[in-house]
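A.,

Following up on our hallway conversation. Structure tokens first:
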């Protein structure tokens, strides 16, 4: 039995998961990396069939690059949005993005559409993962931005994106953590029972 608190466990898990992710991406064949996440699996396309607005994110460093799905989503007639971090307290909204718009720098090294883009309400939110498990729990960066977004848009489909190496046997979940509906990795699409 661990004498660490759940928060300390999450900090330790994040450090381990980030290292595994970094080592995996560094060792990944450049060709395989370039084509990862460019094809939309059929289960994901079906899950997004009724969604009008799909929120992606611009992958940072070794995160799974969600932005690679934008061309397919736009071709499906979806409005694509990117998150805009509003403050350091977990505030975030989503701005429409056509895939070609110039992005402006945001907090924490993020990028988002400029002031001309209007905030939108997503029907599906793709979130970056630090780690995940088969129970559809996610471990994020720790700032609570996506937790708050999921709570703000409770009917939105929650989709995590990460590399297969980020899977853990179990991710600790707090009572306020909402499970994901789907998880997309470079090798598979994992669907929850409520998807």
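Then the amino acids I'd put at each of the 195 positions:
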């Amino acid at each position: 039995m661990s004498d660490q608190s759940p928060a300390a466990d999450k900090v330790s898990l994040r450090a381990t998961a980030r290292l595994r992710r970094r080592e995996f991406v560094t060792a990944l064949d450049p060709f395989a990396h370039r084509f990862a996440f460019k094809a939309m699996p059929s289960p994901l396309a079906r899950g997004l069939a009724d969604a009008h607005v799909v929120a992606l994110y611009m992958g940072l460093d070794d995160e799974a690059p969600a932005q690679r799905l934008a061309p397919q989503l736009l071709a499906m007639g979806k409005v694509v949005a990117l998150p805009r971090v509003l403050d350091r307290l977990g505030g975030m909204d989503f701005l429409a993005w056509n895939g070609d718009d110039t992005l402006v720098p945001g907090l924490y090294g993020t990028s988002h559409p400029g002031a001309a883009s209007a905030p939108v309400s997503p029907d599906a939110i793709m979130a970056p993962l630090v780690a995940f498990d088969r129970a559809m729990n996610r471990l994020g960066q720790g700032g609570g931005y996506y937790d708050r977004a999921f709570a703000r848009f409770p009917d939105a489909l929650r989709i995590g994106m990460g590399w297969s190496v980020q899977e853990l046997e179990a991710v600790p979940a707090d009572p306020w953590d909402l499970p994901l509906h789907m998880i997309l990795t470079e090798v598979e699409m994992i669907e929850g029972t409520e998807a």
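Helices lie at 6-27, 30-35, 42-47, 70-75, 145-152. Curious whether your intuition agrees with the design.

B.
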